[in-house]
């Protein structure tokens, strides 16, 4: 069957995601937190939480799902997300099969349209267990 999980970062990092870096990385915040744009989430609400790179993060930070199961004709993996890229930033989504060390780049955006929310959906095919 088809199941869909929705996550809005209101209470946690969406249990699927955890920070793998020890240095400050992703933080949960809202538009009122006083650290600059965005001043609301993708729906225009300034009290809803979203994930943001902390100002101490000078390089990059990673979010990783827990292990997801293989896909086939019946079990499709689709991830839809809203994102905001500031000047000079970039966002990449990668696939790592559990049998491999390398991360395959599935999608990236370096933010030609600065300072606005955009949405994207990625469909993932993998014949073995994987993380995103």
From TrEMBL:
PROSITE patterns recorded for this chain?
MAM_2
Q: Which Gene3D superfamilies match?
A: 2.60.120.200
Question: From which residue to which does the signal peptide run?
Answer: none
Task: Write one Pfam family the protein is assigned to.
Answer: MAM
MAM domain: residues covered: 5-132
Which InterPro entries does this entry report, sorted A to Z?
ConA-like_dom_sf, MAM_dom
Q: Which GO terms describe its cellular component?
A: membrane
Protein's UniProt name: MALR1 protein
């Amino acid at each position: 069957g088809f199941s869909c999980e929705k996550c809005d970062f209101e209470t946690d990092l969406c249990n699927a995601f955890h920070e793998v870096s020890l240095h400050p990385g992703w933080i949960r915040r809202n538009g009122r937190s006083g650290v600059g744009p965005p001043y609301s989430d993708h729906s225009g609400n300034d009290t809803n939480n979203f994930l943001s790179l902390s100002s101490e993060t000078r390089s990059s930070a990673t979010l990783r799902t827990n292990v997801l199961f293989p896909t086939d004709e019946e079990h499709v993996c689709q991830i839809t997300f809203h994102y905001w890229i500031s000047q000079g930033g970039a966002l990449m989504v990668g696939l790592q099969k559990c049998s491999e060390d390398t991360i395959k780049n599935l999608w990236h955006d370096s933010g030609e349209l600065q300072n606005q929310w955009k949405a994207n959906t990625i469909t993932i095919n993998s014949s073995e267990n994987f993380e995103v």
